[in-house]
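Re: beginner question about structure tokens

> Can someone show what the tokenized structure looks like for a real chain? I only ever see the sequence side.

Sure, here's an example I had lying around. Input first:
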Amino acid sequence: RSLYGALIQPIDPQASAASTALINRWVSDVTAGKIRNMLEGPLSPSSRVVIANALYFKAKWKTQFEPLVTRDAPFFPDGLDGPSYRVKMMSMSGCLPFYRVRDSLDTTIVGLPYRDDTSTMYLIQPANSSRTAIRRLQATLTGKMLDSWISQMKLQSTMVRLPKMHLRNSVDLLQSFQKLGFNSILSPAKSDLSNMIDSSSSAGPKPYVNQILHKLDLTIDEEGTEGAAATSALVDRIGSQRQ
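And the corresponding structure tokens:
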């Protein structure tokens, strides 16, 4: 609480519906109602801790897209040789931050500043863009590379065409955390959360993290961006098949 300003709220796993409603209401309040049902089911009676965080962002573009110019247009997620999908395509011309990476990555980065001049959305597009090309770029891209590109951006007259979108997604992050090496806290046999939960007086399986759920709601339109994200981790005491 003193380090992160976190809210600590006792919950009663035996009153699972009330506890779930309490957590969902907090996430909904923080995200301006964009994420209403962070937890989709009742808590297990063996639940010990639910760790949740959430964020909300809403800002208007410094240079907005003109709604009258938005048109139905083909979008090619797998490149120009692949199938196309009809989308609402926004268009805008202006003097924008721009940089072309002229090495083997052959990538263009364009900045769309927000009106408050404190934040910018960066659009990164590899040459001959497709889902495959973007995945290759993601596998190569590092924070240091991105910082270098942004530092070299110059204002340039640019035309941007961007699909109008509203994205929602829900992702189970357990496998992602395992790939990052967080295996011990996910195993009832190996987990050690003694600094968080006093389990010295309890027999049976140790507390461990058995669910990490992430939800996203993002809208990008002619006026700007509105986005919300939330993550919850459930610490349980019942053993599972995952070791």
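Each token stands for a local structural state, so reading them left to right follows the chain. The domain at 71-163 is CATH 2.30.39.10 (Alpha-1-antitrypsin; domain 1).
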